[in-house]
């Protein structure tokens, strides 16, 4: 009985966390460059149950031989093991702003270990020199004329340098070359992640690598990409599917809740009636 409480409780916790994940996806359905999170729910190791019995041996003293009879496997509950971002390309949305630059996926090699394609990202740098990565091309110029993202991280060039411009009247070619006043100022820096699922989300559409800086995508074999000025990449959240999945998670939570209430009523009856001693 008590094992049932734990099993049902683990299911409710897993579905609650899944609902929170889906709610966060829906809240960012219009966030530029946002990558939807996916969850994986797995079962705890199952228990193999056996019953203890005794077989009487027809001897003079009538010995009993104890043995185990297999009953079967018993689930011990589920848990949400991990969350992984989905790195598919979001739809491009035209804004007409020169500081909005969409990074468009081209050919991305398939990783042999995971069977999934890699991903390309803009290279960003914060004030402490740490490098971050994003697909959000919604840029702007700060008071010093440096190209930054909305939270103040500097956009890096292919050479790893900050990009400083005279004003927002500049052009970006499909190869990422920034032309300011007819002069090539810099080339937008792009990094390639062969296993993007190993990147960690740090908030505001940023990703960080725990294994050092990612390699330059421009010199990585088999990787191609392009740029579209005046466009931004939208979120890749499928709102209709997210709503359906959220409803499914809510129903699963509700079903576990009803089972938990049934266990509770059974325990109440056991305490108040079965355990009663009649005078």
UniProtKB/TrEMBL annotation:
- Its main subcellular localisation, reduced to a broad class, is other
Q: Which UniProt keywords apply?
A: Bacterial flagellum, Cell projection, Cilium, Flagellum
Chain ranges of the Flagellar basal-body/hook protein C-terminal domain: 228-272
- The source's superkingdom equals Bacteria
UniProt domain Flagellar hook protein FlgE/F/G-like D1: residue ranges = 118-178
Output the InterPro entries linked to this UniProt entry: Flag_bb_rod_N (IPR001444), Flagellar_basal_body_rod_CS (IPR019776), Flagellar_FlgE/F/G (IPR020013), Flg_bb/hook_C_dom (IPR010930), FlgE/F/G-like (IPR037925), LlgE_F_G-like_D1 (IPR053967)
The Flagellar basal body rod protein N-terminal domain sits at 5-35
Cellular location(s): Bacterial flagellum basal body
Q: Which family does it belong to?
A: Belongs to the flagella basal body rod proteins family.
Full protein name: Flagellar hook-basal body protein
* Organism in which the protein naturally occurs: Sporosarcina contaminans
